[in-house]
Amino acid sequence: MMQNFDPGRIDRERLVYVAAVVRPHGLMGTLKVKVDSDNPSRFAPQSRLLLVQGDRITPVEVESFSPQNLYGLLKLKEVISVEQAEALKGAELAIPDEELRPLPPGQYYTFQIIGLKVVSEQGQELGRITQVEEYPAGDIYLVRSEREKFYVPAKGPVIVKIDLEQGQMVIRDLEGLR
Fold first, then answer.
1. What is the tens place of the pLDDT at every residue in 33-61?
2. I need a labelling partner for 145 at 20 to 30 A (CA). Which of 49, 114, 116, 155 fits?
3. Cβ-contact 53, 72 below 8 angstroms
4. Residue 60 contacts by C-beta under 8 Å, 6 or more apart in sequence?
């Protein structure tokens, strides 16, 4: 965990953002946050997070959390007034990527998918994934290029290979896909 955390030594490229501060809630420093984590224990009392605001990265401790759909009410031990909470609007909460729980083979975190270059099996560059949309039947990936945009289903025969090392997704460019 982040017991001996040195903010000057953190690699910003290795941070995974788990929430964004929307606004203060109440007078005691509680924050309304937009949550971007599916790990319910991420915001458990005494959990450590990194508060990222501009060039500053500050370790913080969760005092309490109440989920509210895609949002939540988060009380940090270090934030004790509405004025302090107001100053954090727009800040983000993150964790080092080594704290992510491993996923089974073939499953990926959203942040790993966004930004991947999408190429056809023939090697033609088709665009980059700019968004992941979640639906009951499965996720779909929005691919954009200068010329077009189209969706790729996460399930089914379209995706041939995801190569995080190369930063690309190879797809079958099926008729009607684009």
1. 999 887 878 999 999 999 999 888 999 99
2. 155
3. no
4. 48, 49, 50, 51, 76, 77, 78, 79, 93
